[in-house]
Amino acid sequence: MTKLSVNLNKVALLRNQRTIGIPSVLRAARIAIDAGVDGITVHPRPDARHVRAEDVADLARAIAARCDEGPAVEFNIEGNPFEGGWMEVVRAARPTQATLVPDSPGQSTSDHGWDFPGDVSRLRPVVAELKTLGCRVSLFADADADRIVHARETGADRVELHTEPYAAAFVQGDGAFAVQRFAEASYAAQEHDLGVNAGHDLNLENLGPFLRRVPGVLEVSIGHALVADALEMGLAAAVRAYGAVCRS
Fold this sequence. Notes:
The protein has 248 residues and is α/β, with parallel strands linked by helices.
């Protein structure tokens, strides 16, 4: 079964438009956990335009406490380890998973994976440190079967397939064709002992077809579309709807 991790960045982005503390990122996480989500994802950026370091600390404590009481919930922190104090945040929180993403400080959202094999040497010591902290390490990657296999040379445990190109093709009616490249990349990664995650622009319409065609996806991280659906469905109902797709 593919696990669902809910990205709470957009909840934090809305909260940050005012100074009154709502909506609460911590409350959103608790609602999602009560609704059966497998994990919580955040992507703190240097400009703190959505999730902030204090949010990460609060979530780390809340998730740890929840895991002591019931089923385990994973904490996934995304970000660029070479920018803006991200590593300090992760060192303090010690999440279940650290997902390394090569975005620049000014980007509105992540739009490409690491350059393999070009980035292997500089990622290797970062991956090694994160693993000493007890983190599983995933690397954001483009769906290129020939290049993705080099991610294993960093010591990483997983890759996260950047699914924006698939989502864009799906809207144009070309999803069935575009997904083949992701299937090939997933096969290649697994043949080199890399687990496979996926994320970016996945939604209730395109998620099911993607998971049916791409083998062995262990986890999807979904934020923007799920939070948008939550405006109509409610957060708990949206989490349950996405979770049902992951289990189908």
